[in-house]
Design goal:
Layout lengths: L4 H19 L2 E7 L4 E6 L6 E6 L3 H4 L8 H17 L5 E4 L8 H11 L5
Parallel strand pairs: 1-4
Antiparallel strand pairs: 1-2, 2-3
Helix pairs in contact: 3-4
Length: about 120
C-alpha cells in the first residue's frame, strides 16, 4: 500500500482532529500551498466559521513582498488572532492539518500567540 505524500499528511491530520474534538474548543486550522497560506477558526462543533484570514485577502497582503514566505505567514497569524478576538474567542486548539510544525506553519502559530490567542 503506497500512500502519496498528500495521503500521508491527511492521515496525520485525522488523528489530530480526533484529539481536538475531545477538547471541545474552537479550532484554528492552517492550510498552506507553495504560493499562499490560509487560516480559519471554526467553533467546537465545526459547523460555523468564526474567523478567516489568508494571503489572498488584500488587507493581509498589503506591504508584503510575496505571499508564500514566513513574513506572509506572520501577517496571516496576526490577522486571524485579531479577527478571532474580535469575535469573542480567545482559546483555540491548533490544527496544523498534518503539516510539519516548522517554517511558515510555526511562524503563523507564533504570530497568533503574540497577538493574543491562547493554544
Amino acid at each position: 500500500m503506497n500512500l502519496s505524500k498528500k495521503d500521508r499528511r491527511l492521515r496525520r491530520a485525522v488523528k489530530t482532529r480526533a484529539h481536538i474534538r475531545t477538547l471541545g474548543k474552537a479550532r484554528l486550522t492552517v492550510h498552506r500551498t507553495p504560493r499562499h497560506i490560509y487560516a480559519q477558526v471554526t467553533d467546537a462543533a465545526g459547523a460555523k466559521v468564526i474567523a478567516s484570514a489568508s494571503t489572498l485577502q488584500e488587507t493581509v497582503r498589503t506591504g508584503l513582498k510575496g505571499t508564500g514566505n514566513i513574513e506572509a505567514a506572520k501577517a496571516v497569524g496576526r490577522a486571524i488572532a485579531e479577527r478571532t478576538r474580535a469575535a469573542g474567542v480567545t482559546q483555540v486548539a491548533f490544527d496544523r492539518a498534518g503539516f510539519q510544525y516548522h517554517g511558515r506553519v510555526k511562524a503563523l502559530a507564533d504570530a497568533a500567540r503574540e497577538a493574543g490567542l491562547e493554544f
